[in-house]
Amino acid sequence: MSNTLTKNIETFLGCDCEYEEARAVLFGAPFDSTTSFRPGTRFASRAMRADSFGLETYSPYQDKDLTDISVFDGGDLELCFGDTQKALSQIEDFAAGILQDGKMPVMIGGEHLVTLGAVRAAVKKYPDLHILHFDAHADLRDEYLGTPLSHASVLHRCWDLVGDGRIFQFGIRSGDRSEFLWGKEHVSTHKFNFEGLESVIKALKGKPVYVTIDLDVLDPSVFPGTGTPEPGGVSFMQLLHAVMVLNNLNVIGCDVNELSPVYDQSGVSTAVACKILRELLLTVVPPSIH
Question: Pairing state of beta strands 71-76 and 130-134?
Answer without folding.
Answer: unpaired
